[in-house]
Known about the structure:
Layout lengths: L1 H13 L4 H7 L4 H8 L7 H11 L4 H7 L3 H4 L4 H10 L2 E6 L10 H9 L7 H13 L11 E7 H5 L5 H14 L5 E6 L13 E5 L5 E7 L2 E5 L2 H17 L3 H13 L2
Parallel strand pairs: 1-2, 2-3
Antiparallel strand pairs: 1-4, 4-5, 5-6
Helix pairs in contact: 2-3, 4-5, 8-9, 11-13
Pfam families: DUF5753 (PF19054), HTH_31 (PF13560)
GO molecular function, one term: DNA binding
InterPro entries: Cro/C1-type_HTH, DUF5753, Lambda_DNA-bd_dom_sf
Amino acid sequence: MRLVGAQLAQLRRNAGLTQERLAERVNAEYDTIASIEQGRRPLKRELAVQLDEVLNTGGVLTIAVDNMPEMDKYPIWAAEFVDREAEAVAISSYENQVLPGLLQTPEYARSVFENEIPCLSQEEIEQRVSARIERQVVLRRESPVDLSFVISEAVLMDRLGGEEVWRGTLQHLRECADLPGVTIQIMPFGRTTHAGISGPFVLLETADHEHIAYMETQRGSQLVSEPSQVSVLARKYAMLRTQALDVEETRDLMDRRLGET
């Protein structure tokens, strides 16, 4: 991805164009061109074709995109996911072990990181907590993002950090459920069918209407852009939403849990 970005930057300079001017010529955002050149965003084929025409490259960029290994299109690092999450217009998240990072309180996040093995230093924990909370600005954008969460009921039952942290987290979750654009659904115990048994995942739609999936494992993470693979996860998520409690039932469940404490 960085190589393609460097190629684009050189071709643009050879043509005597600034990033701003090139963006205008291909009807793209300046930030899109800048991010591609910096290796932070992949070059999509449709845009590569336009750039080849404008820069008169003879199809160099299109060929590079067509032959780019999947792992180079999307580096397997959480940082890449966070960058895309910040720009997303829609986010759908399924979790069965912990609350999604966008819904965690500082205390809950700290408890999560305190359970890491090998243990993190206090400085590392605080840095990660701070970074996680900063991501939550997406919850309160001026133009609300379409945010959907399906969360296992088991997450509500665990007491990470103790009773006080748990109650504060549940209260925060209940407040988030009332935010504009936010939909929270609980997957109840006792299901005889379950579309999420293969584990948690996140679906993103970017400002460029690119659909991406993100999954974490014990030792890493993966961004998936292949349309057929993203489609499978999108269908799973649609099924999860039909299997989970609806929005009103979820709010009632959280209210009951809060009333029991």
